[in-house]
UniProtKB/TrEMBL annotation, chains A, B:
This is LLM class flavin-dependent oxidoreductase. One of its GO terms (molecular function) is oxidoreductase activity. The lineage of its organism: Bacteria, Pseudomonadati, Pseudomonadota, Gammaproteobacteria, Enterobacterales. Keywords: Flavoprotein, FMN, Monooxygenase, Oxidoreductase. Residues 19-382 form the Luciferase-like domain. Pfam families: Bac_luciferase. Belongs to the NtaA/SnaA/DszA monooxygenase family. Its EC number is 1.-.-.-.
Amino acid sequence: MTRQIKLGAFLPGGGQHVAAWRHPDQPADGATSFEFHKQLALTAERGLFDAYFLADGLAVPAKGGTEGGRAKIAGFEPVTLFSALAPLTKNIGFIATASTTYEEPYNTARKFASLDLISQGRAGWNVVTTATEAAAVNFNLDQQHPHDYRYERAQEHVEVVKKLWDSFEDDTFIRDKASGQFIDPDKVHTADHVGKHFKVKGPLNVPRSQQGHPVIVQAGQSDNGRELAAATAEVIFTSHQHISTAQEFYRDIKNRARALGRRPEHILVMPGVAPFVGRTEEEAQEKYRALTSLIVEEDGLALLNGLTGGTLNFADYDLDGPLPPLPATEGMKSRQALIRQIADEHQFTIRELYQWIATARGHFTIVGTAEQVADTLQEWFENEAADGFNILPPYLPGALNDFIDLVIPELQQRGLFRTAYEGTTLRENLGLPYPENRYSILRNSKVA
Amino acid sequence: MTRQIKLGAFLPGGGQHVAAWRHPDQPADGATSFEFHKQLALTAERGLFDAYFLADGLAVPAKGGTEGGRAKIAGFEPVTLFSALAPLTKNIGFIATASTTYEEPYNTARKFASLDLISQGRAGWNVVTTATEAAAVNFNLDQQHPHDYRYERAQEHVEVVKKLWDSFEDDTFIRDKASGQFIDPDKVHTADHVGKHFKVKGPLNVPRSQQGHPVIVQAGQSDNGRELAAATAEVIFTSHQHISTAQEFYRDIKNRARALGRRPEHILVMPGVAPFVGRTEEEAQEKYRALTSLIVEEDGLALLNGLTGGTLNFADYDLDGPLPPLPATEGMKSRQALIRQIADEHQFTIRELYQWIATARGHFTIVGTAEQVADTLQEWFENEAADGFNILPPYLPGALNDFIDLVIPELQQRGLFRTAYEGTTLRENLGLPYPENRYSILRNSKVA
């Protein structure tokens, strides 16, 4: 089959753009409305998206948010939300973010396995290390662990979770009422993990789903982040302003995966794209300008503060002057570097910078017609910059509907996107292989 | 309004009785079938139950299970499962069990607040300390913490969670698109908790629901357990073989609550009842005998082992002889004492004992006609032994349908049970007060 573009939909109920909640199209209470999230899921499924994707933070940011905007000060916990949306949908996947730093592997493994079972194989776990001081102080710490420590713990956390997901081989359950034999005990396995950060015996008390186990997703851009992704991720969410840096990232990740013995097509690179789509270029520009005009300065600065490390007080600076040097951070190192790059490249003032990143926090923003957007996606897709994209509609549901009604048909016409779901599980739709149970592999290799 | 019986439904997909999965009526894969849990929720709602209740354990028990039976070796995590069931139902509440020992308060507060928001105010949290060695070794421990330590941590955990649930006053969200004012920052509160076990700043990033916050449920029977329940519980799940001990417990709990300044009617005592209901007494007896005949010895002994502390190997004893002395346990102390009491009172052999507790792990079992069951419930309800009951149908869906079709109409005829839901939230149906936000109370007291 011809290779086609994979699409994730990044749909926070509060909207993507910092000022989205003020847009006439967006319900102001979207972030805390279950009905609105249900509408978004059904809409994304109508658009044949592979997955509904949600970020997550374990705090209300004090001085500024990495997600940005007070419309996102409160909302749902992603795994419970997606569990509720799963039975209301049929094909779309659900990729929820959860932290390796502030959860225990047994609990992480369990909630995602449960979501995977409820959704009949449509779950994904976006692995994050949670890089904010605001979260650290909600979990018994005075300040967050260093970057390296978090990634080391993340690596071990993912390893334990994956082991736990294999606790039951696929043919464990016999359930013979006549004989009374419910399981084959030889097919149940303990993890017996003893490591630096965790000691976990197992087995997990949730079985595997139709897709084996949830899809592993990651977004780390630093060297640590890339190493973790190459080793364990099946989908990578990434952030680039230019095809050149996206290509560098794409090739690097595929090479790292190859070096670790993985097949490069089993790790999908999906840059974020925030599209303002119009029937004409002017209409698209007008949509962009309308949202920009709604930004509350305080929100824009809070977002900028969150994304640059959280230590600068922009009230002390001239907003129409340049971005000052940024102090080193133990938070999101690569995001900080990306913001710096954008500021320097465009020679933005502080005000222009927060207006620009207000759309999608540094993700690639396209303002144009459906043809122009499709051209860009096609160029990236066909030139080793992307296997697919995470679409971040700036306001909801309007910008999502625009993408579905205008861009999707254009991509379909070019043969670049599906016209029907390939399967019912997230793996089937993403074209990812079914992960054989590690203990079944061992058993079979012994027999052979 | 006249006081009426409150009813919870204890409906594990794998069935209550150790051998339930072998019953012709019960789907053998019920524990891992989402469709079956959906059917159970809809059935319980048809019966006008206040809540669907699920126990939880953070392990696959090694030598024996406190829930019992290999049919329960794997299943769903309760909060994700209930989130999925919430949008498919309208009135029934969802009481999920979660551990204060193996979770962090910020995560606990968050997932229950999210379930409460998704269900529009129908969530309850059954607070447990998780008393098994099998769970301890899944969370970095070599053996579980002592009983007292677990209860001390539980008390603090609940305190932090309740504080976090009040992070946003009910009128925090202004959401004025014109002015750009999304919140009133004076109505957002940090918890600033610094205690022996936890340090949690807050605020929580989930707002309060239609019922304020989830209903707090507990089941501890020991002195520690009763103290914790009297201080924080709104519903108490309890286990008694006789009206006399139920009355002692009922009065003790209400007195403890009164002593702590609480109104005794704001803490509902609900003993567990496992009913085998027949159109005749003989039919009911036959249902009981049929299930007993399906018990696999190994499962019966595993359950007995789990409930008596997990340290005896019953293979070393004559199963037709008496229960040996039980070694002291740091696990479920009061459950162990209850099993001892049952064994001594009935002069049960080991075999007879596991056959008896196979139904409902020591909960009160009634075998009889609808009139007989209703008589017993009425007697307990009208004589300070119970405000309601947690019904544990031994097999599913049959025994649940029997209760709904035979016993509920009998209770309704006597004016003892509702004929329609009183409200849409769990609190409204249970007759529990709306918990005012602590910070709003403070503010109002300053104004007055």
